[in-house]
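Progress note, sequence design subtask.
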């Protein structure tokens, strides 16, 4: 099939390359010339495992190309909208400028019977607002939310847990759902649940899923706060409650909390939208989820201060991690960098290291010191804090080896990812999050 993907950021670039990898003919369109140049050369503009390979293979095969010209969408019959919906400057609501611009820019190139499939995460009601403009061209607007996780984006796109298609009622909607089934034929063929809903439900599925995930993380972090004043261990608590299949162990990792380009902004946009709809109280708890999440960053800083006998001023602190999570170079709303910035603000000499995210971090927080080499970063540290659970720190850094490099023997485990007993046995004072 001939597809266009409007917006070649994280979502769009992965989607375009993944669709080409399953045999479609794809054109990716974006206004960012540098991004398009890089993608056209088969080079991923950000770090995402597996993307480079499918991108290069797609370009090589001739089935994948990128351009800044919206007119290139003319040849396609299914058009995916994958532009960003960032948090509005000075507010909680989503900024819909890019979605509106993408749809308006596409309108002149739509043919009768085309499908426009929104993938961006949008406030519920967006599709209903856009539909008349799209339908006036004879095309059908559907909402097909994307659930990809960074670090697993290619796999999540090609082989998702489920596919959701929000379609209008009637034959146009049924036809659109059939076309989407055809687009995702390998996943549909192997029995991946394909859930057809109305437009509003599809939009809500996405924000509800992210709100639930954020709630799960903040729930366990709230338990960590209680554990801290009672001497309980939140990691054992998570293990014990996680064995209940109704609860499940995943996303019960207590630590410095969630960040990234999705969960924080999506729960805020959801709150803002619910308030607009006069149902703010229904999701008022999301404000609390956000607050708990942000408190954990302060708690991590507090632990470092406590460990260094009340002050970090002029102390050497090594911050292991900058990305918001491992297998990513994304530093958007990164709890890791927030902790580093806060320690720096308290007068500490902070050395930040990360296997992938230093270049991005440097651009946004040039005031911090960055060290590429992990061991170099550890040298002469009075304390170290793990803030992104990369294998380089979690598995590959032995406490004995670390001790040969640092000045002090204080380790704060902001992700509860280290073997506390092993670090203690090697002479370190270990501090976890929500652990005695
Ligand atoms: C998320 C959703 O998982 C995905 O479905 C959606 O499409 C986009 O948002 P992503 O932002 O890539 O994906 O990251 P995710 O793996 O969900 O992690 C989000 C944050 O939560 C990270 O900062 C991570 O470190 C943190 N986290 C995750 C925890 O603090 N504890 C956990 O137990 C799990």
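Output:
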């Amino acid at each position: 099939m001939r597809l266009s993907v409007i917006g070649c950021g994280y979502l769009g670039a992965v989607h375009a390359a993944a669709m080409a990898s399953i045999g479609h003919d794809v054109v990716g369109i974006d206004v960012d010339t540098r991004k398009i140049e890089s993608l056209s050369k088969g080079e991923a503009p950000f770090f995402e495992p597996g993307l480079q390979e499918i991108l290069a293979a797609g370009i090589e095969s001739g089935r994948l190309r990128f351009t800044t010209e919206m007119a290139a969408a003319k040849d396609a019959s299914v058009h995916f909208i994958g532009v960003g919906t960032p948090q509005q400057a000075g507010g909680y609501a989503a900024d819909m400028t890019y979605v509106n611009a993408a749809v308006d820019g596409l309108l002149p190139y739509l043919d009768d019977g085309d499908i426009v499939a929104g993938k961006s995460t949008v406030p519920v009601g967006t599709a209903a607002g856009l539909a008349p403009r799209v339908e006036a061209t004879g095309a059908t607007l559907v909402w097909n939310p994307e659930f990809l996780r960074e670090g697993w984006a290619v796999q999540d796109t090609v082989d998702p847990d489920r596919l959701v298609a929000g379609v209008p009622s009637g034959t146009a909607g049924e036809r659109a759902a059939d076309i989407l089934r055809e687009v995702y034929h390998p996943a549909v063929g192997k029995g991946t649940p394909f859930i057809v809903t109305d437009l509003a439900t599809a939009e809500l599925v996405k924000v509800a899923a992210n709100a639930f995930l954020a709630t799960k993380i903040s729930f366990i972090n709230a338990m960590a706060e209680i554990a801290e004043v009672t001497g309980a261990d939140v990691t054992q608590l998570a293990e014990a409650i996680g064995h209940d299949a109704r609860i499940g162990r995943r996303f019960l990792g207590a630590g410095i909390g969630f960040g990234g380009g999705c969960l924080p902004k999506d729960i805020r946009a959801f709150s803002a939208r619910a308030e607009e709809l006069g149902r703010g109280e229904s999701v008022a708890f999301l404000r609390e989820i956000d607050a708990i999440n942000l408190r954990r960053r302060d708690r991590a800083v507090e632990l470092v201060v406590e460990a260094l006998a009340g002050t970090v001023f002029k102390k050497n602190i090594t911050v292991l991690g900058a990305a918001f999570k491992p297998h990513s170079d994304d530093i958007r709303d990164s709890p890791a960098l927030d902790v580093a910035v806060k320690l720096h603000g308290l007068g500490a000499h902070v050395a930040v290291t990360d296997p992938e995210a230093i270049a991005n971090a440097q651009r946004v927080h040039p005031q911090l010191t960055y060290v590429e080499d992990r061991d170099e970063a550890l040298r002469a540290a009075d304390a170290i804090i793990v803030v992104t659970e990369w294998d380089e720190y979690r598995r590959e850094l032995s406490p004995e080896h670390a001790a040969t490099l640092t000045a002090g023997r204080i380790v704060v485990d902001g992700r509860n990812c280290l073997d506390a007993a092993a670090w203690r046995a090697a002479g370190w004072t270990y501090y976890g999050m929500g652990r005695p």
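The domain at 2-196 is CATH 3.40.50.720 (Rossmann fold). Work on this subtask will continue into the next period as scheduled.
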